[in-house]
Amino acid sequence: MRVAFASDDENETTRAVVAALVEDGHEVIRPDTAESWPDLGRFVGQAVVDGRADYGVVMCWTGTGTAIAANKVVGVRAALAWDPWIARGARLWNDANVLAMSLKRLAPDVAVEVLRAFLDVAEPDPDEAANIAALE
Ligand SMILES: O=C(CO)[C@H](O)[C@H](O)COP(=O)(O)O
Predict the structure, then answer these.
(1) Has the ipTM of the complex gone over 0.95?
(2) Which of 20, 40, 53, 67 is surrounded by the fewest CB atoms within 10 Å?
(3) What CATH fold (topology level) applies to the domain 2-133?
(4) Which residue out of 3, 18, 40, 60 is catalytically annotated?
(5) Atom 9 (ligand 1): residue with closest C-alpha?
(6) Gene3D superfamilies attached here (predicted)?
């Protein structure tokens, strides 16, 4: 899949997430320049809404700022997740199209588990279709 990725800082956790995306065969779409977390969140959200990416992943210290910024793009459903169950639920019950994670609070192996749990859900639960449509 094509996954847009942006983070406003780099550490072992962000490097592990990008490495897992590449290892799993995804095309990683990244901004050309380092920007502020609001711009990075919008970049990823816009890439998803424009159809240049299938999903987005945003990271910042907390994950919250980039999630808020991505969610400002109409059509984005960004979810902040910190464990695989939350990430899977975000796809399954909310059809989230952008995953947000904290680069400060998630260990590299946990962030990769969260990422894979998110991307592993191909389709949302059809029982949630009306609720998801009501978000627009
Ligand atoms: O978590 C964040 C936003 O939610 C940022 O990563 C954190 O606030 C640091 O940002 P800056 O480097 O612009 O001070």
Answers:
(1) yes
(2) 20
(3) Ribose 5-phosphate Isomerase B; Chain: A, (3.40.1400)
(4) 60
(5) 61
(6) Sugar-phosphate isomerase, RpiB/LacA/LacB
